[in-house]
Amino acid sequence: MGSGNNSSSSSDAASSLMVAVAEIQRNNTTSSEEQVSSAIRAQIASHPLYPKLLQAYIDCQKVGASPEIANVLDDIRREGDVSNRNWVVSSCCWGADPELDEFMGTYCDILVKYKSDLSKPYDEASSFLNNMETQLSNLCNVVSRSHGS
């Protein structure tokens, strides 16, 4: 009976050890993934097309935004411009990473197209409302003149 208990204890210890090893591996993987993610973000932020990417993204965010929000977004873009000018990077320049170059160019193009697609219905709705306002104003002027006569 003693050996059965000992076997159970060994099994529990082995199971606990396996759980601990799995946890350590998961933490190492997470740490490694975070390092890779940080490195990718740094490469993107230091890429020559980053200012264009940031501008295209902010332009998308500004569609339909209030003037106050648009001003905040412009401030963010200006801060990004200053940060990008102050960032001296020797390892990342155009052509150093063709995949990143292609990604950045394609993503910029997609954002520009997305902004255009976002703007179209907003511009159409604004135009419609402006036309309605003009028609109502004209109608009110006609009615007020007829009552004034």
Features:
149 residues; mainly alpha; 4 helices; KNOX2 domain-containing protein; DNA binding; KNOX1
Give your account of this protein's structure.
GO terms for molecular function: DNA binding. Keywords: Nucleus. It comes from Citrus clementina (Clementine). With 149 residues, this protein is an all-alpha fold. It folds into two domains: 45 residues; 103 residues, no CATH class. 86% of the residues lie in helices and 0% in strands. The protein has four helices and no strands. The radius of gyration is 30 Å and the shape is elongated. The relative contact order is 0.07. The mean pLDDT is 81.
Question: Topology of this structure?
Answer:
Layout: H1 2-45, H2 50-62, H3 67-86, H4 98-148
Helix pairs in contact: 2-3, 2-4
| Number of contiguous helices | 4
Derived from helix and strand composition plus strand pairing, the structural class reads: mainly alpha
Q: Roughly what percent helix?
A: over 70%
Termini, distance in Å? Answer: 115 Å
Question: Topology as H/E string?
Answer: HHHH
Low-confidence stretches: none
* Largest beta-sheet characterization: none
The percent range for strand residues is under 5%
Give the overall shape: elongated
Overall radius of gyration? 30 Å
Mean pLDDT: 81
Number of domains: 2
Total number of β-strand segments?
Answer: 0
Protein name: KNOX2 domain-containing protein
Domain KNOX2: 90-141
InterPro entries: KNOX1 (IPR005540), KNOX2 (IPR005541)
Main location: nucleus
